[in-house]
Design brief:
The protein has 262 residues and is an alpha+beta fold. It has a single domain, classed as Endonuclease/exonuclease/phosphatase (Deoxyribonuclease I, Chain A), CATH 3.60.10. The protein has five helices and 14 strands. The protein has helices spanning 15-25, 44-49, 118-137, 173-185, 213-216, and strands at 2-7, 29-33, 54-58, 66-70, 74-76, 89-94, 99-104, 144-149, 189-190, 205-206, 219-220, 223-227, 235-240, 256-260. It has a six-stranded mixed beta sheet. Helix 3 runs parallel beside helix 4 (173-185). It is globular. The chain binds one DNA strand of 15 nucleotides through loops.
Length: 262
DNA sequence: ATGGTTGGGGTCCAA
């Protein structure tokens, strides 16, 4: 089973690039973040035509919003709301006993100080509540996938320059502390790093604000797929659709993919 | 130190 996560930065304007990705990678489950639409305006027909007969959508107007698109049946699970009422989480149970949690963690604004930037404060609190929820409501022996745009680059080699980004939101010690708390809540495994050594640079996002994203290559790994220990034996492959960043009118994030083989 | 770009909705906010 192939599972992918993609911050799509508006689902309605990206149907073309979603089709390109789906044709090339054939994911069984595609989790989207930042769909930027209310559920009633979600482009169900177009995604149904791409083979996703099962869809769970939690949207809001203009901002945020998440969706799970699937070729295999889904059963809606919790829709968690932390810190504020925003649409940043949706989850589903899959027939083989797995539970999938799709998150869009707050970006946190520009200033990395919770005292003067309420958005950064909200991000830290959000991550703390995610960690607490898993610790209290699930077990490390459960089969759980936690994925999405976590908006944290946790490792030195998850950013283009560790030194230059130490005080930049997404790579501060505070955010890395709470990322670690989420990992520790159920002993999650960072699936992609099972395949790529920690000293190799790896990104899933490149800003729009560069003339040539590939030339400057100032990327960060903000999108993650975490799995609990019972799923580790099934993890056979990963991919990051880096060339997708070159598609016309695409998101600033690219899809991150894993394969779980039965 | 600053500005660079994108999307949504509505003449600005969030990323």
């Amino acid at each position: 089973m192939r599972v992918a996560t993609w911050n799509i930065n508006s689902v309605r304007i990206r149907l073309g690039v979603i089709k390109s990705f789906v044709d090339q990678y054939q994911p069984d489950i595609l989790c989207l973040q930042e769909i930027k639409t209310e559920a009633e305006n979600f482009p169900h027909a177009a995604l149904d035509n791409m083979g996703f007969k099962h869809r769970l959508v939690r949207g809001e107007k203009s901002y945020n919003g998440v969706a799970i698109l699937s070729k295999v049946p889904l059963e809606i699970s919790d829709q968690l709301t932390f810190v504020n009422g925003q649409a940043r989480h949706i989850s589903a149970r899959i027939s083989n006993g797995m539970e999938l949690h799709n998150f869009y963690v707050p970006a946190g604004g520009d200033i990395a100080d919770p005292e003067i930037n309420s958005k950064f404060d909200m991000k830290l609190k959000y991550m703390e509540e995610v960690a607490n929820w898993f610790q209290h409501n699930r077990k490390a022996s459960d089969r759980i996938i936690l994925l999405g745009d976590i908006n944290v680059a946790p490792g030195k080699y998850d950013v283009w320059s560790h030194r230059q980004l130490l005080d930049i939101v997404s790579h501060t010690y505070m955010e890395k502390y709470y990322f670690r708390k989420i990992l520790n809540s159920l002993n999650f495994i960072d699936a992609v790093r099972e395949f790529v050594p920690h000293h190799e640079k790896l990104y899933s996002w490149w800003s729009y604000r560069n003339k040539d994203w590939k030339l400057s290559n100032k990327g960060r790994r903000l999108d993650h797929i975490l799995i609990t220990e019972p799923l580790k034996p099934y993890l056979t492959n990963y991919d990051i659709f880096k060339s997708g960043r070159d598609l016309a009118s695409t998101s600033d994030h690219v899809p991150v993919i894993i394969d779980l083989q039965r």
